[in-house]
């Protein structure tokens, strides 16, 4: 079973009760107010509140306000839906000053921290990009939603990868490993529930990797099987050396 983690301790799990959807096969999210919902129900609920003229999202069961950052992550909105929601709310993602020219720049894709400044690009004759998180010239591969390659650029996801508890994988000879890993292909955080084998399938990109050695599944299974230790050994926590 996979748990799709977001920031802090919010998680998707198929075992909780959604007051508006009892489909047993749907992954559900625990919101900050403590109530359970699935991504589609959350999206529909927020859209209905916007259509009614509300500019903030509230739980229909307890009236607690849901922070928009939480809705944006857990509702699994597309980029178009995020932009539409932000337009309707009148709170489109804030502009930031480009570190190259001090011009205010919008970020159109809220899932990507790498932002191009068209002014600097035109002025310099080559593409200029900066990090939305640390506001420095971009370093490293792109697109990325967690951090760039600059020292000190970190996120709540990195803290979660650093601080999550260790677990013993019962099905893999009680090997101890971090309970949360980032997908090696797309970076989405996944928690192992200690059920099933060491090979995990990411719900976001549908690719498989080993939770123990962090190798692609096919590479890991060349010299072992789903329930034995890895020839490559245990991979360390996926944290940056500057944390």
What does this structure look like?
The chain is of the alpha+beta class and 243 residues long. The protein folds into 3 domains: 9-89; 93-150, no CATH class; 156-220, no CATH class. 21% of the residues lie in helices and 19% in strands. The chain has helices at residues 39-51, 68-74, 79-89, 118-124, 156-163, 217-220; strands spanning 2-5, 12-13, 28-30, 36-37, 57-58, 65-66, 96-97, 104-105, 114-116, 129-131, 166-169, 175-178, 180-182, 189-192, 199-201, 208-210. Strand 11 and strand 12 form a beta hairpin.
Total of helices: 6
Q: Would you count the extended β strands for me?
A: 16
Q: Report low-confidence residues grouped into runs of 5 or more.
A: 1-21
N-to-C SSE string, H for helix and E for strand: EEEEHEEHHEEEHEHEEEEEEH
Largest sheet: 3 strands, antiparallel
Q: Can you list the strand order of the major beta sheet? A: 1-14-13
Strand percentage: 15-25%
Anisotropy-based shape: flat
Tally of separate domains: 3
Indicate the structural class.
Answer: alpha+beta
Whole-number average pLDDT?
Answer: 80
Query: How far do the termini sit from each other?
Result: 30 Å
Percent of residues in helices comes to: 10-25%
**Multimeric state:** single chain
Radius of gyration: 20 Å
Question: What are the SSEs and their pairings?
Answer:
Layout: E1 2-5, E2 12-13, E3 28-30, E4 36-37, H1 39-51, E5 57-58, E6 65-66, H2 68-74, H3 79-89, E7 96-97, E8 104-105, E9 114-116, H4 118-124, E10 129-131, H5 156-163, E11 166-169, E12 175-178, E13 180-182, E14 189-192, E15 199-201, E16 208-210, H6 217-220
Antiparallel strand pairs: 1-14, 2-3, 3-4, 5-6, 7-8, 9-10, 11-12, 13-14, 15-16
């Amino acid at each position: 079973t996979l748990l799709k983690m977001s920031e802090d301790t919010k998680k998707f799990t198929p075992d909780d009760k959604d007051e508006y959807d009892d489909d047993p096969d749907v992954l559900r999210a625990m919101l900050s107010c403590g109530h359970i919902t699935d991504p589609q129900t959350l999206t529909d609920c927020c859209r209905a509140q916007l259509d009614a003229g509300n500019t903030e999202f509230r739980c229909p069961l307890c009236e607690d306000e849901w922070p928009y950052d939480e809705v944006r992550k857990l509702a699994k909105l597309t980029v178009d839906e995020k932009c539409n929601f932000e337009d309707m709310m009148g709170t489109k993602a804030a502009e930031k000053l480009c570190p190259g020219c001090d011009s205010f720049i919008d970020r159109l894709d809220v899932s990507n921290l790498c932002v191009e400044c068209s002014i600097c690009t035109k002025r310099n004759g080559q593409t200029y990009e900066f990090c939305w998180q640390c506001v420095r010239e971009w370093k490293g591969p792109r697109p990325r939603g967690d951090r760039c390659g600059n020292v000190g650029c970190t996120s709540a996801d990195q803290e979660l990868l650093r601080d999550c508890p260790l677990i013993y994988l019962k099905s893999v000879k009680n090997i101890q490993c971090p309970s949360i890993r980032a997908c090696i292909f797309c970076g989405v955080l996944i928690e192992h529930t200690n059920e099933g084998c060491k090979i995990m399938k990411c719900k976001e990109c549908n690719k498989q990797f080993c939770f123990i050695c962090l190798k692609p599944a096919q590479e890991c299974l060349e010299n072992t099987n789903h329930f034995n230790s890895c020839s490559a050994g245990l991979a360390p926590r996926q944290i940056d050396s500057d944390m």
